[in-house]
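quick q for whoever's on today - can somebody do inverse folding on this one?? i tried earlier but teh output was garbage lol. tokens:
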């Protein structure tokens, strides 16, 4: 691997993956607020005897199941927060972009551009108005939904071939799924 290819890989990875700064900032802010609240509550507990008595009376007034439910509820809330934070940290934050490298260049294409080119090719090949072709590009699949003019049949094979031609031409592998709406629109 040449130095240029390593640079291409690094730049393309940075452009196809979302940064984690926003979730990290939110987690840090929540942590600071909770720690400050715990610090203020602990200091208040140590200084004010009336606060300790009021808290003990409130907790003592609860019946036995409710006294057990308070720590269990706090524990469940903490576990749910931990699972969400772990998911944010471990799951890849992917952007709707695809990348490809050659010996001399690196290519980064937004999924919206791929969807527009597929929709244009399908509309041209099937004779359907471009506004009636909806395309969704996923990680491994391209879903095409065609809404025909009422009474005019649409060739699904031609649409499928158009999708395959576009995807092969631009060099991105995906499985096409073409569907034609059963009810057309009146022109």
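ok took a stab at it. sequence:
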């Amino acid at each position: 691997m040449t130095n240029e290819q390593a640079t291409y890989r690094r730049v393309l990875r940075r452009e196809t993956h979302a940064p984690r700064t926003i979730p990290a900032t939110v987690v840090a802010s929540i942590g600071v607020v909770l720690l400050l609240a715990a610090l203020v509550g602990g200091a208040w507990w140590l200084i004010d005897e009336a606060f300790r008595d009021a808290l003990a009376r409130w907790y003592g007034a609860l019946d036995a199941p409710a006294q057990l439910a308070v720590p269990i509820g706090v524990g469940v809330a903490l576990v749910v927060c931990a699972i969400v934070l772990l998911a944010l940290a471990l799951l890849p934050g992917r952007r709707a972009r695809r990348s490809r490298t050659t010996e001399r260049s690196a290519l980064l294409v937004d999924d919206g551009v791929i969807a527009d080119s597929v929709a244009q090719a399908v509309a041209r090949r099937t004779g359907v108005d471009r506004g009636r072709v909806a395309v969704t590009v996923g990680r491994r699949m391209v879903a095409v939904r065609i809404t025909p003019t009422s009474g005019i049949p649409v060739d699904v094979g031609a649409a499928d071939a158009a999708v395959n031609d576009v995807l092969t031409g631009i060099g991105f592998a995906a499985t096409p799924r073409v569907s034609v709406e059963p009810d057309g629109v009146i022109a």
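fwiw The longest strand covers residues 141-146. also The chain has two domains: 18-90, 97-180. so keep that in mind when u check it
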